[in-house]
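Hey, resending since the last one bounced:
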Amino acid sequence: MSTQSSDKLTKEIKFPSDHTKQIIFSIRRLIQASELYTKELNKKFQISAAQLNCILTLYEYGPLPPSKIADHMMVKSSTVTGVVDRLEKKGLAERMRNSPDRRVITIQLTDAGKQLAENAPPPIQQKIIDGLKNIGNAKKEQIVRSLNILTNMLDVQDLEVK
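The structure tokens again:
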């Protein structure tokens, strides 16, 4: 390969700027932190992060219908259905029909579910929630705008959050 064509190839390759690298590395760290948290939960308690969030919601608020659990967890009701199915199989929660209308159900923790709630670590997003309490509104708005820019770049702003 001649020096001239080598120089041309080098000029065509665009290397990311330092800011771009910092953004990419920060996103990777967030993803890795989430994956590590999920692995630890699975290893120590044999549950997923969504299952823990459901357990902690029921522990804090008591028996709830699936739609209310979904509101507290900030997910769709269809997501809660699968989570509750898995918690029931593990003996951590149960569906109760206390209404004359058999379609109305509430979910409540079993004793094993309550014990897990008392011993489990806080959900990973709790660290973010606690940290955001110490940040002013202007900074929070800046974070929201920045994250919206990133989600729009990936064309994922309409994805269901699970």
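The CA atoms of residues 53 and 73 lie 7 Å apart.

Sorry for the duplicate.
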